[in-house]
């Protein structure tokens, strides 16, 4: 067979050639904008030309601090296709961490949204390598800023060459993108994505049993474009000619419902917190969600009760998936096998709430205390992955050795696997509750609590215990109408028939909100400290 390079250059080219009329619908601070792929392709060339004029060369890093919108999409293609490296920066990190990653990546140019400028200004004097800032504003004039030199995105594009030629000699193993993942302690760790990895991962997103993204889709990634490339949806969507809906800054559940209804979104993707918010909106308003064929949910465990409400109450198909920054991210997806459709609804729900089976193209092993675990749904071990879209190291970071050895990525996720190969994430290694030498899954308890009608959100953490080393402690946010009514006793009684006695949390703390990480996951470290204080009151 021929050895043609798997590079991203083919993606936008294909959209331009075959789908010039299809649209990118983009929400920015000034409202909704509609562009055709013909226009987006031309703007992408203009951006690449502007970056070349600003001195960007092969291998240079260009950072973005931006929401999901068309200009960010243009950067997604212009930068890798000119053989530079697209560095998407998580705007929810602290200024210290943002400065660290910009310096560590050695970004030469930064593309920034106007509302994120104040955050970047806080890093200003710390930035060692940045030569230029480009503001992606809708206004004709640049906002005032202490940063310098600053360029106006649209003015640069107007002056640029619309016929810029992307280089044709890109090596498929060249870096195309990079993203930093927050570590529990210390600085964030960088992961480099190659052209080859992105192309193969995009194919996996298109598989009928994977994401199933196709030309017919109207895809709305709600997951930020600064979090693992919005799970790769912009790459796959452009390549396949799907319509993209990019929801922009500061969206609310109401706005998402509005976009789904008016733009007839067929597939959308985000973390469970987003979908809990949307459910709340659906419960209070009257929305037409009939166009949705899939809600992709990952990043943390999707509560069973939530999947049930989406599917049974609102008739919206739900797809639970698993991945991490290090895995591009798609690794597991919970799609039922044909013969499992015959199971009764509760059994199906149980399977669908697992993270699912391995996506074709990847390899997996699950290593427990005594070697690889049995496929019995009970034994627990650490999930290890390898494959063409799994990172092989962290970027210039000695912590590489913790996670990457023997040719595998050691994910730090503790899982079990059943007879059918469905993997269930039991916990992060560090979040497991180790009680009397046995393991308790915080995720299982959280899911069970969130299935109670009064519970909006629940997180379970370990508290140190003299006799048992650790015991589970639950933190619960009640739904508005149940506040002051539902008691701890009721919730504990609800759990008792479902778990062994020693799994039942020692206590429950009612909170107004569960603290979350920059990407919307439960911030267990903060929660543990909060609970500690409560226990010692
Ligand atoms: P990140 O790199 O920020 O995307 O975080 C990756 C981590 O999120 C994984 O190692 C898991 O611990 C967790 N995670 C991702 N997807 C799921 C899921 N569907 N269920 C449970 N945990 C998940």
TrEMBL record:
InterPro entries: AMP-bd_C, AMP-bd_C_sf, AMP-dep_synth/lig_dom, ANL_N_sf. The keyword Lipid metabolism applies. Residues 445-521 form the AMP-binding enzyme C-terminal domain. CDD domains: ttLC_FACS_AlkK_like (cd12119). Keywords: Fatty acid metabolism, Ligase, Lipid metabolism. Residues 21-395 form the AMP-dependent synthetase/ligase domain. Pfam families: AMP-binding (PF00501), AMP-binding_C (PF13193). GO terms for molecular function: ligase activity. Belongs to the ATP-dependent AMP-binding enzyme family. This is Long-chain-fatty-acid--CoA ligase. It comes from Neobacillus kokaensis.
